Amino acid sequence: MSTDNTTDGSTETESKCGASEAQASAGETDTEANTGSKCGASGAESGPESSASAGEASPSTEADDTTSECGASSSSSSSSTSSSCGAASSDSSDEEEVGATVDDFDADPGRLIAVGLGPGQPEGMTARARAALLDAEHIVGYTTYVDLLPDEITEGAEDIYDTPMCGEVSRTEEAIDRALAGNDVAIIGSGDPNVYALAGLALEIVESKGATATMLDFDVVPGVPAAQSCAARVGAPLVNDTVSISLSDHLTDMPTIESRLHAAAKEGFTITIYNPWSRKRRDNYEKCCEILLEHRDPETPVGVVHAAGREDEQVEIVELADLPELGETDLVDMTTTLLVGNEDTYVWDDRMVTPRGYETKYDY
Prior knowledge:
Layout: E1 111-116, H1 127-135, E2 138-142, H2 143-147, H3 151-156, E3 159-163, H4 168-180, E4 184-189, H5 199-208, E5 219-221, H6 226-234, E6 235-236, E7 242-246, H7 254-266, E8 270-274, H8 282-295, E9 301-306, E10 314-319, E11 336-340, E12 346-348, E13 351-353
Parallel strand pairs: 1-4, 1-5, 2-3, 2-4, 6-13, 7-8
Antiparallel strand pairs: 8-11, 9-10, 9-11, 12-13
Helix pairs in contact: 4-5, 7-8
Region (Disordered): 1-108
Domain Tetrapyrrole methylase: 111-323
Pathway: Cofactor biosynthesis; adenosylcobalamin biosynthesis
């Protein structure tokens, strides 16, 4: 991972959010300048924080640091060197530290809400999610997800703060600091905020700052998770007992993932596989296929849904035995979700069907 920090050492950016200047240095790098947020969100995103984007390159950036509404130097417009997962790296550490605490803010707290966008297209967003975003003063999120927002939402917001890949920790803290500074803030993500997303991280950081969820009127607006939106593309594969497992070993080590795969596969759950493939995780995908084939019939149906709800969506139903060879194709990547059937799942009329058990009690 790169540890270069190319921010200007001679300038100090001033926070607009009410945090005291004395606290601003906490968690920042040991450079001469203070270019991070005095609300605590670091402009240089120093940790490999994203499970969904490790190994991807960050978007090109402009030369000058941009101060956010909360005083943070926006990663999408700073001249920091990208790390292996797209985030700007720090000279001093690979770990981020929480900066400002609740005591550093003079304003009455605003509101923080975590909003799930669903599968991607605007029509897949719930009415409650749309209403929450229209009411929000500030919207914070990963650049790709911000780009999915309808114009009426982006045009109605007072400010939008986005970061490229691997900025989960810093942008979540940015959202919290903005809320502590008195703003009504929405932090967004695809799918649902409680499924491999930021609702939990937000509460952890709120706690670490000495604030409370009640103080920020914290709320979660659910969205349609990838498992459900992708299942809808291939029929009815998940109507009985089911589990979800991510193959990303960024936050969960591979031995644990393997153990969970063995446990789920041998017990007959249908399984949704998130984050199946990246350039750095070929071995994870191959190991997953090996474990599934150890416990399941090679003819078990598997739904493969690439980029559900987006322009490049692709959908196929294959047999489990065919899954390993798909790892080197464009069909399987980090935007793909795999839906693995159980011993009862079958394909009828080009659709996956997993019986719920009605046939054992009723004649039809």
